[in-house]
Design a protein that fits this description.
single chain, alpha+beta, 3-stranded antiparallel beta sheet, two-stranded antiparallel sheet, 5 helices
Length: about 190
């Protein structure tokens, strides 16, 4: 069975609120299908920021510019120090790399800076299982905000938990599934 398309993911969102399927995307439009597509895009960005094997580049070299700063591309969602720079506390601030230990954007030294990078991918470029997970997450969020049905939310949550448990994470940015994180937090006793 081929991986789902973005149109399939949008139709999954629409099915979650008992709406009719659409035959084409309405990117940037005002229809209910366009709104569902925005939820798919938001969920794609959310999952890509977590870092999965399909969207994480390991120890990517960046050369500081003339002012010793590193400006990241618009597709970069998250960074972490890597390789010879793994001891440094380098983070993203806006579209630049910030040295949190020194409190500055300027990178010391004249050489390259190495970072593990989580990039935003188009839906079509995601791993097939990650597409499923994005579609289910988008469906759940879409249904919650449009209809607010507790019963349908419970069913969609179960489907998302099953898919989430099967999806491998890149250990760079954290390796526990979303639902395992929520379940492992201590409950307050009454």
């Amino acid at each position: 069975m081929p991986a789902i398309t973005k149109l399939d993911a949008v139709n999954q969102c629409l099915a979650a609120i008992n709406e009719y399927r659409v035959t084409a995307l309405d990117t940037g439009g005002t229809s209910i299908g366009a709104e569902a597509e925005r939820y798919v895009d938001d969920s794609t960005r959310y999952f890509c920021a977590q870092g999965f094997p399909c969207n994480t580049l390991r120890a990517k070299a960046y050369t500081p510019d003339g002012s010793f700063e590193i400006v990241l591309g618009s597709s970069v969602l998250r960074v972490r120090s890597a390789g010879p720079d793994q001891h440094r506390n380098l983070v993203m601030r806006g579209t630049k790399v910030f040295d949190a230990d020194k409190g500055q954007f300027a990178m010391s030294g004249a050489g390259d800076v190495y970072l593990d990078v989580a990039e935003l991918l188009d839906f079509a470029d995601l791993d097939p299982m990650l597409r499923e997970q994005v579609a289910q997450h988008a469906s759940q969020r879409f249904a919650r905000r449009i209809v607010g049905s507790q019963m349908s939310d419970a069913f969609i949550s179960q489907e998302l938990a099953i898919t989430d448990a099967m999806q491998p994470r890149d250990p760079t940015f954290g390796s526990r599934p979303l639902f395992a994180q929520a379940a492992s937090q201590p409950q307050q006793q009454q």
